[in-house]
Give the backbone structure.
Amino acid sequence: MFTSKSYRSKAAEFAELAKTGDPEKSAEFRKRERSFTSLADNEEWLAENFEKTLHGSEERGGPGTLAATEEHVLRCLGAAVIMQWNTIPKELQRELFDSAGSIGNLADVVTLRGQIARFLHKHKDDEQ
């Protein structure tokens, strides 16, 4: 699971990449930097306001249970997105692709984006 520190680290990586000089790539890298900075801000807010938020019963089972629950939720959300992929506007598809393709190590981004692209292409005509 990502933490505010890891999100800030990722934002810093994209900030450095934005200094490349290529205006188109720099704009994309700045956009990703802002996205990861926003995620870090959200994580910090949640950490600071944890006591003020509602907590589901699955959190009482310990960190392993919460991680398993979160993984299950993410898998269900991902599957739901894929099932509706062909009905999602192209601009949102691109944003989702870019966001998903930027998760993980920066060195693995190209590989991950290729895997995602191949998966989407393979399933583009699947029945919904």
In short: The mean pLDDT is 79. Residues 58 and 68 are 10 Å apart (CA to CA).
